[in-house]
Design brief:
Length: about 325
């Protein structure tokens, strides 16, 4: 037993040394490290400035002519209307390579030549002479191929006290021909008013309305408007009439009679009502002559050739100038 004790003591020492060495090699855990500072949140980027809105470009001026296709009898008249879009001025210059075109305020009157032809009529904007429109008019001597609208010019008024009705009935006729050497005459008795025509008002807003029988009712506002009749079965068989809607404030007047049918070289008395004051100035278009016979009357002498002619009256009034138109059918 004595021989074993040193060995045990030795082992205890060895164990103690090993424990000491282990403890020295693995010291107790250190204190908990301080929490790291939270990183600074990045600055939000600056919002980009809104881009400048681009300038809207001006709409281009455009010219259109109504009707866009048209058949006109030889030597006869047809009304044309030009519209200038995106311009403050509706003024146009009319030109043609056949017949004649006469400007009448908001429209123009084309007179066909005495022979069959294909005529080009152009309306050019006064505001921008680079803008224009051109239509082709077929001048024909085939009986019944063209349309005539009557009356070609009319007055209405919401104020019947100034001498006009509030509505106007328009009638479409086939245009027939009589005469010699190419002279054309409208013979309305040759055919009854045409049924199944398409009626409309050229101006799309505030210009009155027309029913399927050609009965036009004017708006409350004064102005000049246009009634169109078309044959749905045949392109170019169309006609336009002009309507002046008058009020007491416009100083408008009318010629009596509005339509006269007389023989070649015959005479017709016209008068102006109501009087607008001042001296009435009379004029004729495309035939005949007129002579003033009083403050508000004149005597028209028809030409020897059959046809449709226009009489004008114009006078300065208290609120501006008044103007009126009458149609003369010589046959």
């Amino acid at each position: 037993m004595a021989a074993i004790q040193p060995t045990r003591r030795l082992m205890r020492r060895v164990f103690a040394i090993v424990l000491l060495v282990f403890t020295a090699a693995c010291p107790p855990g250190g204190t908990t490290g301080t929490t790291g500072t939270t990183g600074t949140t990045g600055t939000t980027g600056t919002t980009g400035t809104t881009g400048t809105t681009g300038t809207t470009g001006l709409l281009a001026i455009a010219v259109t002519i109504a009707p866009s296709t048209l058949v006109v009898p030889t030597n006869q008249l047809a009304r044309l209307v030009a519209k200038v879009s995106n311009a403050t001025s509706q003024a146009v210059e009319w030109t043609s390579d056949g017949g004649t075109v006469t400007n009448e305020q908001t429209s123009a009157v084309f007179q066909a030549p005495g022979n069959q032809a294909s005529v080009h009529v152009t309306a050019t904007s006064v505001a921008d002479p680079t803008k224009s429109a051109t239509i082709t008019i077929i001048v024909s001597d085939v009986p019944g191929e063209a349309l005539t609208i009557f009356p070609n010019f009319a007055y209405t008024s919401p104020d019947v006290s100034i001498g006009y009705d509030a509505s106007q009935t328009f009638t479409a006729f086939a245009t027939d021909f009589t005469g010699v050497s190419g002279a054309a005459s409208v013979t309305f008795s040759a055919s009854a008013p045409l049924p199944d025509m398409s009626w409309s008002v050229l101006e799309t807003s505030g210009a009155g309305s027309v029913d399927t029988n050609g009965n036009y009712t004017g708006p409350a506002a004064a102005g000049r408007y246009h009634v169109i009749v078309k044959d749905p079965a045949k392109a170019g068989r169309t006609a336009i009439a002009e309507v002046e809607v008058a009020t007491a404030a416009t100083g408008s007047m009318k010629i009596t009679p509005a339509i006269a049918r007389i023989a070649p070289s015959a005479q017709q008395v016209f008068s102006v009502t109501p009087g607008a004051g001042g001296t009435v100035q009379w004029a004729v278009y495309q035939g005949g002559s007129i002579l003033s016979t009083g403050p508000q009357s004149a005597l028209y002498t028809a030409p020897a050739s059959p046809g449709v002619y226009i009489v004008y009256a114009n006078t300065p009034g208290p609120s501006g100038s008044g103007a009126a138109v009458a149609t003369v059918v010589v046959q």
